[in-house]
Amino acid sequence: MKRKVLSLAPLPAEIVEAFIRMSPDVPEFEVIYGHEMSGPELIEAVRDVDIVFGDYTFKQPVSAELVAAARRLVFVQQPSVGYQHIDVEACTRAGVRVATTAGANTVSVAEHTIAWALCLMKNLFFAHRAVKEGRWPQMEVRPVELWQKVWGIVGLGRIGRAVAERLKPFGLSRILYYDIQRAPEEVEKGLEVEFTSLRGLLEASDVVSLHAPLTDATRCMINAETLALMKPSAYLINVARGELVDEAALAEALKSGRIAGAGIDVFVEEPVRPENPLLAVGSDKLLLAPHVAGVTDEAARRIISMATSNVARVLKGEEPLSVINTPGAPAARG
After folding, report:
1. Where in the chain is the domain with CATH 3.40.50.720?
2. How far is residue 136 CA from its own chain's centroid?
3. Is it true that domain 3-103+297-315 has CATH number 3.40.50.720?
4. Is 35 a catalytic residue?
């Protein structure tokens, strides 16, 4: 029986199929394009598919209802690092493994993080805008140096470690980090980082960058109370998840000068709604982007290659990589 792959991504089915076929010895399969299907259409389409290829725009969720309707589903491959639109618990209960492309955009996000810190500290947006407007405010830009400053990393996973590694040449006085689990001593020494509490990190850092996953513990971890701990001269960078930050509290902190500036790549609601409080902050020290830190050309190629190669592995009966759950024995299906 020909295996079926339901693709929820906006890529044409022919493209997804072509990438999967780049792996040798893949048995016959069919890719069904589901990105524009309605909910009822997806429920009908998923009944006889073996694999779901996820939506990297997060618009088409893999819900508990979708998983329950699938009779042959054994694997969900998400072509991104984030997977908040997938009901992983429902997949686990149904014996369906879920995999991501962890690590594919590590370099991209780490570079973006440091680039934004430099843009903020050098006040480059204000400088650019002023010259374009015909002004020459040479003594008003007031850039500052990263050298001998303190950088705080919240979340020392792949991206947090990549940021720390790339910060070494800048001559920082300290690189602090906070994580729910302290890294091994050899990792700390290799990265030249110091473990501290979240409070200690916020109080001491000149730049705070967020690289933590979204959990109940991290939701709104940056709020009015924690923003009040930061230096008035400090900058906040969020390239992780929008829900880590209380957007209204951050907007107020920026307006009042409680902190010096921020770079925000992720939002609670995406695309951003006009009523988002951050859009009302009239400051050159607030940089906003449409969730692009990890969307370089190179990262996109790595993501699609990793994701489709993993689908090919499952079609060939091999074990997939980067699985994020551990289902029990799969329930009998069809």
Report:
1. 3-103+297-315, 106-288
2. 38
3. yes
4. no
CA atoms within 13 A on the CB side of 95: 12
- The predicted structure's pLDDT at residue 1: 79
User: Of the residues 35, 241, 302, 313, which is catalytic?
Assistant: 241
Tell me which architecture the domain covering 106-288 has in CATH: 3-Layer(aba) Sandwich (3.40)
**C-alpha angle 250/82/74, rounded to 5°?**
155
Q: Which of 270, 273, 298, 333 is catalytic?
A: 270
Cα dihedral value 174, 176, 182, 184, nearest 10: -30
The DSSP line for 83-126 is: -TTB-HHHHHHTT-EEE--TTTTHHHHHHHHHHHHHHHHTTHHH
Catalytic residue list contains 270: yes
Per annotation, catalytic residue among 35, 112, 291, 302: 291
Beta carbons of 261 and 120 less than 8 angstroms apart:
yes
The series of mean pLDDT values per 10 residues for the chain, 334 residues long, is 95 97 96 97 97 95 97 97 92 97 96 98 97 97 98 98 98 98 98 98 98 94 98 98 97 98 96 96 94 94 97 97 81 36
